[in-house]
Amino acid sequence: MKETFQKAAPLLLKIEEAGFEAYFVGGSVRDHILGKAIADVDIATSATPEEIKRIFPKTIDVGIEHGTIIVLFNGISYEVTTFRTEAEYVDFRRPTEVHFVRSLEEDLRRRDFTMNAIAMDKDGEFIDPYEGALAIKKQVIKTVGRAGDRFNEDALRMMRAVRFHSQLGFRIEEATLQALESYGSLLEKISVERKLAEFEKLLGGKYRKNALQLLADTGILNFLPGLSPYKKQIQQMTQLDCIELSIVEMWGLILFQIQISMNKAAEFLKEWKLPVKKIKAIQQLLFYLNDRMKNPWFTKAMFDAGEEILIGTERIFNVLHNDEINLNIESLLTKYHSLPIKQRSELQITGTDVQNWFQRTPGPWIKEILEEAEMAVLNGHVENHNNSLKEWLLRCNQN
Ligand SMILES: Nc1ccn([C@@H]2O[C@H](COP(=O)(O)OP(=O)(O)OP(=O)(O)O)[C@@H](O)[C@H]2O)c(=O)n1
Fold first, then answer.
1. Ligand 1 centroid vs 83 CA: distance in angstroms?
2. For ligand 1, is residue 157 a contact (CB within 6 Å)?
3. Do 358 and 324 share a domain, yes or no?
4. Structural domain of 254
């Protein structure tokens, strides 16, 4: 058993000694069977949060009404959740009512996919009533019970199916796939924030191309912000080898692929509720990519873009040309690093200098002179020294 589980095993034992059941559940058990690294473990128990509080001195209430409590144990915090069935998800987001149950099997029955419905006890024995381990072996994503029921309980599960397809490359079982095609509209009720989290995990998956195609083929795409008109363009992305792009670069590629204008791109990204900083980076990628498709990198564009956007743009450019992703990056970086200045603040003159030298009423002309100086330094026409710049600027602007 992995160390993460071994560390938590005594916690399970304590719960058992108090007369209850406790198991590892969810993604950690799935990833353990897959042989992947495990970040944290989730624990399911027959004890209620109140009963858990009586067993452990250090707990934190996080969602008692949903049966979840955090237990601090040997310096590590664990999410411990009471076995539960969630009857109805009236707004398709959160269960209206949580029914606590005393049986593990009932708890596992309300989970999304068979591979996510496996429990493991403290000794590493699996409790797997829905044959999740077999599904993992066969590389199949299959809902526990009827797919339509599971998706009606929480429509986000449809995106989770495609996200797991992207991360694991598993095929989606026939009935589950059919339900994805039939129930897509339920996603209208799901918050953008939840969709975004799944979509970005999907964009980071090893099988992202296939997953994007699946979103288009199943029609799920129609219920994702701003993407419904672009089915064909998204499907065409399967021709591009984009596996090494970062998430931000993936967004840039998508925006380029759907041929969206700069103005519309801002709206699109806001609709996805991305953080402002990320929106700015993606917009910049799109801007320089549009330019790069027509021109080689000019000094000014390299300077304006900055190192990160420069590299990101070139990587997307390479993907669009089916070239090796890091083609030319080294030489581009060498060029960038040899720029005399990397940002305007490095210019050895200020607006005040310019005003003192020219003795004119302040106005927009100062900014123009600074830009002139910046271009001259970048192009190697003058050295980035205060005196040299003074002499050069006065000579060039004699009248
Ligand atoms: N809409 C959901 C979300 C989660 N789960 C169940 O809750 C577990 C934990 O969910 P979560 O932590 O969101 O995802 P993981 O499956 O752990 O995957 P990952 O850690 O890769 O996000 C899942 O394995 C699954 O059993 C579910 O049934 N339905």
1. 14
2. yes
3. no
4. 240-339
Tell me, using a 6 A CB cutoff, whether residue 374 lines ligand 1.
Answer: no
Q: How confident is the model at residue 90 (pLDDT cuts 50, 70, 90)?
A: very low
- Cα 365 to the center of its chain, rounded Å: 44
Residue 292 pLDDT:
97
> Is 27 near ligand 1, meaning CB less than 6 Å away?
yes
Query: Which residues have a Cβ under 8 Å from the Cβ of 305 and sit 6 or more positions away?
Result: 284, 288, 313
User: Residue 330's Cα: distance from chain center in Å?
Assistant: 27
Q: Are residues 5 and 128 in the same domain?
A: yes
Q: Rounded distance, CA 127 to CA 118, Å?
A: 6
Give the pLDDT band of residue 78 (cuts 50, 70, 90): very high
Ligand 1 pocket check: which of 43, 111, 113 to mutate, most ligand atoms within 8 Å of Cβ?
A: 111
Side chain identity, residue 131: E
Ligand 1 neighbour 111 (Cβ under 6 A): yes
Domain boundary, last residue among 206, 238, 270: 238
Q: Would you say the ipTM is above 0.90?
A: yes
* Span from the CA of 111 to the centroid of ligand 1 (angstroms): 8
Rounded CA separation 233/248 (Å):
19
150 labeled binding residue = no
Q: Which residue's CA lies nearest to atom 21 of ligand 1?
A: 27
Largest CA distance in the chain: 93
Amino acid identity of residue 88, one-letter, is: E
d(CA 34, CA 36): 5
Say if ligand 1 is within 6 A of residue 112 CB: yes
Q: pTM of this prediction? A: 0.92
In the reported structure, the alpha carbon of residue 117 is separated from the centroid of ligand 1 by a whole-number distance in angstroms of 9
Do the beta carbons of residue 285 and residue 313 sit within 8 Å? yes
